[in-house]
Amino acid sequence: MIWRNLSRRKARTLLTLVGIAIGIAAIVALRATADGFTNYYALFGGSGADLLITQEESVDVVFSAIKEEVGQELARLPEVENIAGMLVTMASVEGVPYFIVFGYDPDEFAIEHFKIVEGEGLSARSAGKRGNALILGKMAAQNLEKGVGDTLRLYEGTYRIVGIYETGKPVEESGAVIPLQKVQDLAGKPRQVNAYQVKLRDLGQMERLRQRIQHRFPDLTISASADFADEQEMLAYMRGFTWAISLLAVVLGGGGVMNTMLMSVFERTREIGVLRALGWRKGRVLLMILKESLLLSSLGGVVGIALGIGAVRALAHMPATMGLLSGTFSGDLFLQALTVTFALGIAGGLYPAWRASRLLPLEALRYEGGRSGAGAAARLHLGGMAVRNLSRQRTRTLLTMVGLGMAIMGIVLLESLTEGLVAQVSALAFKNEVDLAAMEAEASMDLSTIDERVVRRIAALPGVERAGGILTGYASTEDLPFFVVFGYHPAGQGIRHFHIVEGEGLSANRQIIIGRVAAENLDKAVGQTIRIFNTPFRIVGIYETGVPFEEGGGVIRLHDAQMLFQQPRKVSFVGIKVKDPDRIEEVRQQIEERFPEVFVSMAADFAEGAVDIKFTRAMAWAIMALAVIINGVGVTNTMVMSVFERTREIGVLRALGWRKLRVLRMILRESIVLSLVSSLVGVVGGVALGQALNALPLVAGFIQLSFSPPLLAWALVIALVLGAVGGLYPAWHASRLQPLEALRYE
After folding, report:
1. Structure pTM?
2. Which of 287, 532, 629, 722 has the fewest Cβ atoms nearer than 10 Å?
3. How far is the C-alpha of 687 from the C-alpha of 685, rounded, in Å?
4. How many Å apart are CA 539 and CA 283, to the nearest integer?
5. What is the DSSP string of 99-124?
């Protein structure tokens, strides 16, 4: 009976299944991706090491910096059997924006877990014999269509592939391994590593070794390799995000299920009356509707899990996302998806089931669903028809509006977040009053490094008035998970836009000026001390710039920043002022030709040209597309139900002379009105929530959500598209109804 009841309205059931499936697919894909990042952190202990040593207070292990001299001291400790350094960087390679490059010493134990399946391993002999040699992950080799003997360009160097490896971890198999020293050169981190992997002579000495290292090197963090991934704050944030998406899916999917089950109850009111008259108790009716709801959500959940797995597999093999978005599937993941599916069935079916169980037999048998007289049809010619029709089933309309409104709100927040990021990166260039901005070519903004000698050579070019570099770095403090540090030359042009509102500017080493937001978040004042990577800096001033990213951080002398982040004679970005404004493009091309390791763009376009911003935009658009698809299905579902419910009424209208096109326009108008009203609610909610987030100290010191008229207009355009697309099939179906058949509809 349950399956027969659901199959009565195949179109409605199918639409609901699609909506649930897409929501569950999103949960599976996002959670699998988050678990994939867990594997990324697990790699740092994946070589069989017992301990992993990183820099204390580093935001992420990729920003950790430990000198090789420290490793040499650690190797001499009696409890240590073996020690291996590791350095990771990212490059843009042949359409892959984030290609992970691992640096290992060929003579150390950590490289042994890269199992060579073709060619030969990376060794001091092969590196010396072949020059720039690398071994490539199997997944990367397939996606890039590379084999042993081929070449691969990393930054400005060409590397020959000497072997293909497997590790069983997609993140590793989507990258490449080159000798540690080569990665140090590429990353601009001479004689540095991100982490040391340590094997002990006796596991019973682990705690003793921890205490000894902590006493000798208080600026290091020692973790058991097996526990390292669980200790990363970044993973906690990602998992929180996936649970938020899961909650959204429950709301949207639950609304769709409830919508379907309510319509099922309305259509079967007389049938339920018969069952009640035959002796069915309230509990039995309630259980029947709940079972239908659970079956519907379960089928959607199974399809969604399959779609999610397929999406992750597809992303893992796309050059643009390979490695970065590789997912991991686990029993816990599928349990979460099934739990959400079960919640959808319960949440969506509970009210319709309760309503069905409350029907009295006599009233149910008298129910004339979908019947309307000529008088009612005549009244439809009056104004406000679309609103009146939508208000007939307030519960259904409200559920659809909630789903649509939340989707539009999410779109507004995502796009405002991206716009805020672009605006802040662009503001850095504008505040410095430069014409051109430069960073390391093919590098992530967070990992960009340029030699100061290159900056001086750029400054000496004939068409350049001045050129100055800044160094950016990230630290984690007790009160703030992200604290941005800017290194400026105290006498340079760039530091002048930091307007001191309290205290004074930088005049000596180990001094810092902090932003107004950072001062409030850290509860610090002029004269106090702040410790960054265990190094004390005295606060001599508090500044304002109007850029949240800057006001949430601090500024120190460039030399201090280079020492703090172990980047001697390096900068992250370069601002360039051109003598003749009419020759800006000519100077830009000249710099890129002379210095191919540098990417140069107009200051106004710098953010848009960065790989990180492009990738962020692509991810935001992917999530927005998902929201549009889910809610397009929701609108279609609602309008299909509305048409089925009003079949006899539409028959009356057709009998009174309404043409097909007029009926089609009526349904389309209702769909568009529904979408527009929902969109307005979503836009208002998104702006309100965004402004509330902007007021939070932690958010205000990191990024500012930016709401622009084009963004709000784009949200309304999306709503129009949703309304048109969602209402198209129901409108077509309604316009095709023949008067006689429609009037006979039961």
Report:
1. 0.69
2. 287
3. 6
4. 70
5. EEEEEE-TTSGGGGGSEEEEE----H
Domain boundaries, the chain: 1-45+236-367, 58-119+166-218, 391-425+607-746, 442-596
Q: Judge whether 171 and 326 are in contact, CB under 8 Å.
A: yes
Q: Which of 188, 83, 100, 194 is nearest to 143 (CA)?
A: 100
DSSP 169: -
**90 near 98, Cβ under 8 Å?**
yes
For 558-573, what is the mean pLDDT? 92
CB atoms < 10 A from the CB of 528, how many? 12
Three-state SS string over 172-234 comes to HHCCEEEEHHHHHHHHCCCCEECEEEEEECCHHHHHHHHHHHHHHCCCEEEEEHHHCHHHCHH
Distance CA(600)–CA(253), nearest Å, equals 47
- pLDDT tens-digit map of 623-640: 677 667 766 776 777 777
Q: Is the pLDDT of residue 123 over 80?
A: no
**25-39, 155-169, 512-526: least confident range:** 25-39
Q: How far apart are the first and last CA of the chain?
A: 20
The tens digit of pLDDT for each residue in 262-298 reads 666 766 677 777 787 888 888 888 888 888 888 878 8
CA distances from 216 to 210, 299, 444, 629 (A): 10, 59, 34, 57
Q: Phi and psi of 119, rounded to 5°?
A: 80, -145
φ and ψ at residue 108, rounded to 5 degrees: -105, 160
